[in-house]
Amino acid sequence: MTTYLKSSPAFDLKKTLRRQGHLFSPMRPWMNRVTRRTLRADAIAALTNAAIVMPQGVAFAMVAGLPPQYGLYTAMITAVVAGFWGSSMVMVSGPTTAISALLFATLSPVAAPESEVFLALALALTILIGLLQVAAGVARLGGLISFISHSVIVGFTAAAALLIACSQLGPALGVQVERGGSVVERLLQVVEHSDQINPTACVIAIASLFSIVLCQHLSRHIPAYLVALAVGGFAGQFFGAEDHGITMFSALPSVLPSFNVPAASIGQIVELIPGAIALAVVGLLEAISIGRAFATRREEKYDTNQEIVGQGLSNIFGGLLSCYAGSGSFTRSGLNAESGAQTPLSAIFAAVWLLLLLLLLAPLVVYIPVPAMAGIILYVAWRLIKFSEIAHILRSKRETTILLATFFVGIIIELEYSIVVGVVLSLVFFLYSSSHPFVGVGAPMLINGERRLRNAELNKLPQCPKISIRRVQGQIFFGSVDELESDFSKISNDHPNQTTVVLILQGIESIDLAGADFLNQQIQRAKRNGGKVFLVVLYPSLISALERFGTLATLGRENLFHSKRDAIAYAIGTVPSTLCASCKQRVFSECSAKAGASRGC
């Protein structure tokens, strides 16, 4: 038969540089979609977005152990850069709960929150995260990043939610406790100081929490976080918060970010690398999952590697402009899409609107009691736990193991280690699955008047005494050859007279040297037993690999097919008529033309 082979293209340096340069080009594909209509829609959507992110940014900065203005800077700068260089049309980036919690968990053991050292390390860590993400985008690792099990993120965010909630119990109750520690340690600290609970603080926290829940129930278009802050502020004034010893927010030093190269030593940067890797992975998983979800929903193209570069650049620029690490925000992105956003200009406009709102409302920050923000953050923590996704994951033992391991490591040991454990477990399960491909033995079955191949064992179908039809589903590589050898040996021992093998590899695109050696051994073994092997291959890339590793030379090109039907018909023709004369199975339609057919069933 005629095969088709694709030669490997020669390395083209200019083409490679042009493709890499496109990732950083200031001329973005979405610019062609900007019209007067989209500008108006983006500006309106951005205003709603800005109203929500102002209190949200303050809350997330507190979770990260940073002054409030850092969350606001991140909400502006990160949104602009990631929106401009990203791939999603509606995703809005900025501070997120998961990133904020993980950043706090990474830095709190080495520096006091809100201290100068903590701030410098936060900015240095953000730049390091950005560099790692840009490198991943340039290396085209988008597919690898998105491979990590979703259960890792669900387990991590659930652990982060508990950590966030426990960190806000003290402020919500008006109790002064030390920051830091695991979930259990934080709870014990609150219990130990339970005699110091301030009823006024509780009322303020409950008022802000109730108002945000009510607003979200009425309409998602209501700026619930802003309303909750206002309610908390009025409650604080009404009950005389300061007179009852309740801490108020300090005035924002500036609403405009400033350029600043973080003063961190080489030793400190090296110490931050493990945390930076965890944060970079979490940030990319958040952004990619959100961007892909909206692209699918809106039937738009989505370039994962471009998104990775956009996120990386936003963190590099952000770290130099007083921002901490950010990622895609599902809340802001969902609201942006629902509000009618059309292009990434909506994210850029949101930053402009946020700056204007800050110039107007920044002086009012000093009237906000800390318990009011604690109530909002408690709501954020609750929303972070995806109960429906957890219920779905619990249906799979493998994904449940990943989820529980990630969760318990996050709440018992350290949050950043939970990501590592989850990723390692995901890889272990993937490698296990890859090293255990499915090998099925097929036989014809009459369906709607036509004979189709089905699993012979499951359907209890008779097989040809001389021909074994085998299908491999999975990968044929060094990690799976031992399992394949075991499966093939068992099939051969169960049916020793089936010396001819039709091996279906239609779903396999590539093979390595160890996999090719395995096929060579099967071909040679069949020849020694007086039979042959016929391969059914669909992808040119696999054919090229078989040519390169010498498998085609061992097999013989006449024994390579693209069609199961052709391969089976050819294989039947090679079985001597003398062997078919006494056969009573006659499982194939072609058997009717063989000797002794009138005696068959």
Automatic annotation (TrEMBL):
The chain crosses the membrane at residues 43-64, 70-87, 94-112, 118-139, 151-177, 197-215, 222-241, 261-287, 308-327, 347-380, 401-432. It comes from the Bacteria. Residues 465-571 form the STAS domain. It is a multi-pass membrane protein. It is found in: Membrane. SUPFAM superfamilies: SpoIIaa-like (SSF52091). GO terms for cellular component: membrane. GO terms for biological process: transmembrane transport. This is SulP family sulfate permease. The lineage of its organism: Bacteria, Pseudomonadati, Pseudomonadota, Alphaproteobacteria, Rhodobacterales.
